[in-house]
Specification:
The protein is mainly α and about 475 residues long. The strands form four sheets. It has a three-stranded antiparallel β-sheet with strand order 3-6-7, with no helix packed on it. Strand 6 and strand 7 form a beta hairpin. The relative contact order is 0.14. It has 18 helices and nine strands. The longest helix is centred in the first third of the chain and has 26 residues. Helix 5 packs antiparallel against helix 6. About 45% of the residues lie in helices and about 5% in strands.
Amino acid sequence: MNKNIILASIISVLFFQTACEKALEVTPPGELAPGNVLTTENGIRAVLFSSYSFMQNPTPSRFLINNSEVTTDIGFNSGGTEFLTLTQLINFTWDATLGTLQADVWAPNYRSIRDANIVLENISNVKAADEKKNMYAAEARFLRAFAYELLYKWFGPVPLRTTSASEPVLARATDEEMRAFIESELLASITDLPDPGKEEAFSRVNKGVAWSTLAKYYLNTKQWQKAADACQQVMNFNYYQLYPQYQNMFRVENEGNKEMILVQPCRNEVNFGNWYTAGALPQNFKSTAQIPEYVWTSTMANFATMYRMRSAFTNTFDVTNDKRAVLLIRSYVNTSGVTVNLLATADNVRSLKYWDNNTVGNHSGNDVPVLRYADILLTRAEALNELNGPAQQALDLINQVRTRAGIANLTLAVATSKEVLRDLILRERGWEFYSEGKRREDLLRHDKFISLAKARGITAAADKHKLFPIPQTEIDANTACKQNDGY
């Protein structure tokens, strides 16, 4: 398909070159002063698309996935330069100087927020139809709220910068202020966003994206009824659906399918590629019988670092029947023609969810899922169980996902209590969403993040490790921003 991706790299270079050097730049460059470019529709769109570009930047996607999985019962890593970062996450020895927290999470999201603020401050002066201006404002409000919701999951409350002229020194919001802002901004964005499928370009947001983001926010903050209701809003569009074949859903040629509610769009180009497979490939990989269509060539990268999956997780799959296990590579043929059994080494199965025969160097073209319809089904099922305990309505939602995977339906004879079904849903989410960066938030919500770390022999503390530290660069630059407890 023709990807009409909102990744304004050229715009970012022209307009924001100097603004990316500090932890947070709060003054817009002179070219963007009110009265010139920001009074035109093209000018305001350029800033809006720059906000999108920081939210959709695909290069950090492998870090967002790995950072959220090697801290859990799913992911593991060894070898290469990236191991220097990931070993700190595996062993819970990270601190505020860990570079990925600043480079891949904090900075991109605050840059997206900055640009969204510029749009909202100047939209009333733009010479364009009111309908267009309202839509641009709604997109900006969504992007700002989406960035704050992600920051909240990683760091807890952060400074709420709602204007481009915000004071450089700004204290963190309270938890109540943070939660109220995220919810109100997401709700306010919905009215003027287009319906699903009506957005002007691939990867621009719509009402379905906003309701889905709200549903996940409500789920992770344990607002069960609101989560269930938001999921129902998504379902009521009658637009989204499960892709029939799990193992083919992530292929480049199937992008834009109606299961993908929100993605990080990727292309086989520098600055736009999905690098995950380059790190997941085992040493000297050539091919695997599990994915016979995929054949590595010398034009494709194979990193020294190894993105691996924990055996305790991969051993839970029904590899005979569960089609999701096909993308978890257990053996392969190397470049010398020798078959290698990855199961012979612990924690060594590899996820090739994002394989692409047209990979160029590091750059695979597979979009990275952020929100899928399967997540909406399982989110509603989890919320309903928390509200009412096991019921057929919740099981029917879960069983849509299981039927696609090729495994037997859950029944009330198995889901005998709220606690039992809660654990079954958590297990299902692991099977469904591995290599998509959701496991950390799932374990935190289920209050198993710390206990499972301790079971792996990690020294983990509930009062410290449930949140990441605010990056030290921000603490140094913003003296009013206090560090999380324990750091």
